[in-house]
Amino acid sequence: MPVTFFVPGYLRAYTAGAGKVTIPRAPSDVGAALAALCDLHPGVRDRVLNERGEVRQHVNVFVGNESIRFTGGLGTPVAEGSEIWIVPAVSGG
Amino acid sequence: MEPRHVSVKNGDAALLVGTMKGAFLLRSDRSRRRWDAGGPYFAGTPVYALAFDGRSGRRRVWAGTSSEHWGPGLASSDDFGRTWTNPKEVPIKFPADTDASVKRIWQIRPGRAGEADTLYVGVEPAALFESRDAGKQWSLVRGLWDHPHRPMWQPGGGGLCLHTILPDPVHLRRLFVAISTGGVYRSDDGGATWRASNKGVRADFLPDKDPEFGQCVHKIVMHPSRPERLFLQNHWGLYRSEDGGDSWQDIANGVPSDFGFAMAMHPHDADTVYILPLESDEFRVTPEQKLRVYRTRDGGRSWEALTRGLPQKGALETVLRDAMDTDRMNPAGVYFGTRSGKVFGSTNGGAAWTCVMDGLPPVVCVKAAVVGEAPGAGAGPRSGARAGTAKRPAAVQPRATARPRATAKPRATAKPRAAAKPGGRSRTARGAAAGKR
């Protein structure tokens, strides 16, 4: 089963406009899934991850309804058929 | 939001305005009476750094964006904002071995006129990047990053930022940078090695008031005709160096406060500098609720208030370190932007001011240029013009009606507010806050 990313509006400039990107081969964890997404759409990488490979402070990644901040970060396991959401944090003024 | 665009031609005056929610590009003819504004570009994203590169016939605008969500970006436009580069890979990145990541781009500085493909960028955390191919590829200046002082630099209120870069136009291997809080550093070998250049600059917020480094320098400026002389606006303190930063002398003579951020060099006179004093580090607004630019025309021996056309009642304004600049026309244009979203301009060296634009998000960066002229080239004079009101971008029209500010009583040669005591520490606001610093 594939894994599906839901991409916010800002990042669609780097996914050829797609708000939904499917990774055909099931990755083991969120980090591997993100790597696969960035292989397909390289512009996503520097916007979601910093130079240290960390998810940017004000970007949230959810697997289903669970934020990966509380489930093991990029090491969070990904089940086949998972939906992964990239969401800008509700912050700023 | 779709931005409004304006077009420029050679000889136009250009004003680049970075705000907390995007960038605006303004143009005027040489009279600088009326300004047309394009933007907002990068709507919603802070733009702390803008630069105009007119070398080699370019009309290139550079923008450093700092999205709170998606990180920093560096883009350029050769058509005054209609199209921007948007590289998939962000070009300013720390190498993996540094274990650092760029938080914000603070400064974009084209290199010397004779090095048309050289550009510098200053970032937070404090570091210098350099490009030798007109911005295609960038590399970290290792000599500064590996400096033994670096681990001891501390962030100021705006973060640990390298915010000013001054390539010496005569000594071609010499380069100055200013870091908050690290101080001024100078390289004499093209960036390979650096040494602190802070002798005489006080650090009132440290137990040791005269450290080798660690000063919170807010801005340094230099005139290309006299590069051994520099002026410095410190976190408390105004200074001049006559020896390329080897030593600094206090020049806070007759200013209402020596706290402030912004400082700009006159384009044609190495004795003339503009500052915008703020009351104190605890109350970072214009003293006495008066918006006053201060100008020295004698290298800092005295300062005069420039008030004509600027609000002199109820003005609790803040002007940040990169929000003041001069153009290269004659008479010189002087411009600054406020955190309350106003841009003021003068087309006669500061004698009179008008509000160029109002109703903007907080202004963090103002850069002035003449289209079609490389830095160092002259500009045709047209005296007697005054700054005027910008035609606002349609997208932001409803927010405010830009119109000239009420003209204040002319006061071209204001007397200094207070005489400096020996040692140059006679600022009223400074004295009031001294016990708390």
What does this structure look like?
The complex is a heterodimer of chains A (93) and B (437). With 93 residues, chain A is α+β, with helices and mostly antiparallel strands. Chain A has one domain (3-88): Roll (Ubiquitin-like (UB roll)), CATH 3.10.20.30. Helices cover 16% and strands 23% of the residues of chain A. Chain A is built from two helices and five strands, in the order E-E-H-H-E-E-E. Chain A has helices spanning 30-40, 45-48; strands at residues 3-6, 20-23, 59-63, 66-67, 83-88. Chain A has a five-stranded mixed β-sheet with strand order 2-1-5-3-4, covered by helices on one side. In chain A, strand 3 (59-63) and strand 4 form a beta hairpin. Chain A is globular and about 40 Å long. The mean pLDDT of chain A is 94. Chain B is mainly β. In chain B, 2% of the residues lie in helices and 33% in strands. Chain B has two helices and 28 strands. Chain B has helices at 142-145, 428-433, and strands at residues 13-19, 22-28, 35-41, 47-53, 60-67, 71-77, 104-110, 119-124, 127-131, 139-140, 161-167, 175-180, 183-187, 195-196, 217-222, 230-234, 238-241, 249-250, 259-265, 273-278, 293-296, 304-306, 324-326, 334-337, 343-346, 354-357, 363-370, 390-391. Chain B has a five-stranded mixed β-sheet, with no helix packed on it. A four-stranded antiparallel β-sheet of chain B has the order 7-8-9-10. The longest helix of chain B is centred in the last third of the chain and has 6 residues, at 428-433. Chain B starts with 12 loop residues before the first strand and ends with a helix. Mean pLDDT of chain B is 88; it is low at 376-388 and 394-437. The interface between A and B is medium-sized, with 21 and 18 residues.
